[in-house]
Design goal:
By secondary structure, the protein is mostly helical. The protein has 8 helices and no strands. About 65% of the residues lie in helices and about 0% in strands. The longest helix has 14 residues. The radius of gyration is 15 Å and the shape is globular.
């Protein structure tokens, strides 16, 4: 696997300083799927919540389905802080492929009565899923 020079530089910086916010954001911005593994490691590692949240954001920006399972695990984990879970829901929406949509439906079903369920419902509607039987009507 050949890494582009910019990606190689960012990954080296991330390895030296995993809490480097600008590096994390830049990895999302360049959108190279080869950054998914290091970003998932950051997400699943023992890092500050803001760092993990930015890793999720970057994964959503890359938009590659290779991040679906990690994002789904985080979003469904009730031991995670709410903001982390909500950001994972939004990232799954950015990916928006059928497996991401299935994860969003599971998240909605598991959290139907709380804010995370409402966030998942909103993302699903934005993806064009209006007829799923369990989604509340946004008009009340």
């Amino acid at each position: 696997m050949v890494l582009k020079p910019k990606l190689r530089q960012l990954l080296k910086t991330l390895e030296k300083n995993p809490e480097d916010i600008l590096t994390i954001l830049n990895l999302g911005e360049i959108g190279d799927p080869q950054a998914i593994g290091p970003l998932i490691n950051l997400l699943e590692g023992d890092h500050r919540d803001d760092t993990r949240e930015l890793a999720i954001y970057a994964l959503g920006s890359i938009g590659d389905p290779g991040a679906n399972q990690a994002l789904g695990r985080v979003a469904r984990d009730k031991n995670q802080p709410y903001k982390i879970r909500e950001t994972a829901v939004a990232a799954l929406g950015k990916i928006g492929d059928p497996p991401a949509m299935k994860l969003l439906i599971k998240i909605y079903e598991e959290n139907e009565s709380d804010n995370l369920g409402a966030s998942a419902a909103t993302v699903l509607r934005e993806l064009g899923v209006h007829s799923y039987y369990g989604l509340p009507d946004p008009k009340g």
